[in-house]
Specification:
There is one protein chain. Helices cover 19% and strands 38% of the residues. The protein is an alpha+beta fold. A six-stranded mixed β-sheet has the order 5-14-13-8-9-10, with no helix packed on it. Strands 16-23-22-18-19 form a five-stranded mixed β-sheet, with no helix packed on it. A four-stranded antiparallel β-sheet has the order 15-17-21-20, with no helix packed on it. A hairpin with a 2-residue loop joins strand 18 and strand 19.
Amino acid sequence: MRTDIMDVTMIDTFRCAVNTRNILLSWIILSLMTADFSKASKPTRASTRSEHQSSFRRMHPKEKGHRFFTDRGYATRTPEILATKKNYTVKRGNLAILHCTVQNLGTKTVVWRRSSEENPLTVGEYTYVSDARFSTQHKVRLDQWNLHIRNVSLEDAGTYECQVSTKDRSIRRQFNLDVQDWSVYNAAIQITGKRYVDKGEPILLSCNATDYYAPHDIDWFKDGDKLDSDRKRGIEISKSLYLARKTITSVLKIKQAKMTDAGDYLCRTSERYITTIHVQVLNANTSRNVKRGTQSGFSHDGNSGIVITPTRYVLLLTVLLVYLT
């Protein structure tokens, strides 16, 4: 009797296990049938980032942008000098700056030299020549190695070369520097206005000064004394700067000319260019008088007709007395 009960229990247990197995298999099959495998084929950001970091790593912080390690080994980026302005024109005595932009420099060095000379001017930020006017300014963020020439002279004109230190010197770029003297710019200054003015009339003088760079300022002088705007004296001075024409203009106005306003007026720029003009003030009361009766015994007046001068009057009176006697 006990054996029969055990057999029944084992059979029930087996059936329960089979049913559980069938349920698990059905759930697995159903999950596989309803699963979306399209998302599994796309890499996630985390996986991409980890893969990128593992296969593309910078080896040396000092060699930023130059040497990298990939799954295939080392990869080196070649230094490159970018295209920038090649021709520079500088006024004698000013600061000349030649711009050279170098990318992927790595452990290489930038060298500046004259194209006609073998010895360098600067190596990196070190000045190789004894002339302290030459120096290199390194702008890290802009990847620039600019050559500075202070107090540039006419002899500094020529072709310069920015070069990356390599065996074959193949990475280079040339720049042309033109240094011009002051006389080349045809600096000019002149005063325009009336030289003869009647007393009580305005004096109006205009001074124009032109240079390679527009002059910073301009002043007026009379007989050596500086003039400024003065309402009490009726003096007005105005200034206008025209950068496009590289010209500065100043207008001097004296509302009512006095005899004391006659004299030499001088215009001078901040660069010490000077020009003068002499103004003569005329007395209107005397300058308009006309001497009458000096050329003829008769003169014509529009209001009184013919006028007989005293000399003619005496002569006629004498002739008349003689005739009557």
